[in-house]
Write a structure and sequence with these properties.
The complex is a heterodimer of chains A (about 150) and B (about 90).
Chain A (H helix, E strand, L loop, with lengths): L1 E4 L3 E4 L5 E3 L12 E6 L7 E5 L6 E6 L28 E9 L2 E13 L4 E4 L11 E2 L7 H4 L2
Chain B lengths: L10 E4 L3 E9 L2 E7 L9 H17 L27
Antiparallel strand pairs in B: 1-2, 2-3
The chains are: A mainly beta (about 150), B alpha+beta (about 90).
């Protein structure tokens, strides 16, 4: 399928590259189809590009790149939407934001993806210690993003 | 808005399979028990709204992230799950 994205222009997306979010994103339940792109300049940076709405794309990094602050197995999160064969076969990605020029990471609403089945879900953590706008300035592990 | 009065331990049914029970009352705080199918997401409203807001704001902010829009088209990637062996 071809979609016109705000950031990347026309994208030709093969069916097997479509990641479905059966529940949509939190508060955006109609956004259910995405493609995951790797930034061509900063390889640690990913883009979750909506196929339903071309102007909607989120910048992401893997949880492990941030030092793995999130452990969903501790949180009792329902991951049935991912149809996991084995309980650990998923990747956690964290949505980045830029607030007044500073990068922040949304640790409260991470995105879990089962690559084997191309299924995703945005989960909401109960623990309020997970900051919605966790500042990344001090995180020395994200230099690739800062220079992007 | 429909407003119903309930006493402690009484419930409300929403549809066929969602049950909300008033399980505790302490001063101006009440505790609700919610039984719902696993595919029904349940969130505190203020948390739900803050994540929703953050998603939309982050999608807007991404336009400023990195360099100019419509640069090189990155190829789709499939994540490979890599787990480090846990010790002990």
């Amino acid at each position: 399928m071809k979609i016109e994205s705000f950031r990347f222009g026309w994208l030709d997306v093969a069916p097997e590259d479509v990641i479905r979010f059966p529940e949509g994103l939190v508060g955006l339940s109609r956004l259910t189809s995405f493609v995951l792109l790797q930034d061509d300049k900063a390889s640690d940076l990913y883009w979750l590009q909506s196929l339903d709405q071309g102007e909607f794309a989120l910048a992401l990094v893997t949880n492990s790149k941030l030092g793995s602050p999130i452990d969903l197995s501790d949180e009792g999160v329902d991951l049935s939407a991912l149809e996991l064969d084995q309980s650990e076969d998923y990747e956690i990605l964290v949505v980045l934001n830029r607030v007044e020029g500073e990068f922040t990471a949304n640790l409260r609403g991470p995105i879990a993806i089962n690559p084997a089945r191309a299924l995703g879900k945005q989960v909401v953590l109960r623990d309020a210690r997970f900051d919605i706008r966790h500042p990344l300035r001090s995180a020395a592990k994200t230099p690739a993003l800062v220079t992007a | 808005m429909l407003v119903l009065s309930r006493q402690l331990d009484e419930s409300i049914m929403i549809g066929d399979d969602i049950v909300i029970t008033l399980v505790d009352i302490r001063g101006d705080k009440i505790r609700l028990g919610i039984a719902a199918p696993p595919n029904v997401p349940i969130h505190r409203q203020e948390v739900y709204e803050s994540i929703q807001r953050e998603n939309m704001q982050a999608a807007f902010a991404e336009r400023q992230l990195g360099e100019s829009a419509v640069a090189v088209k990155p190829a789709p990637v499939r994540l490979r799950v890599v787990r480090s062996e846990s010790v002990g």
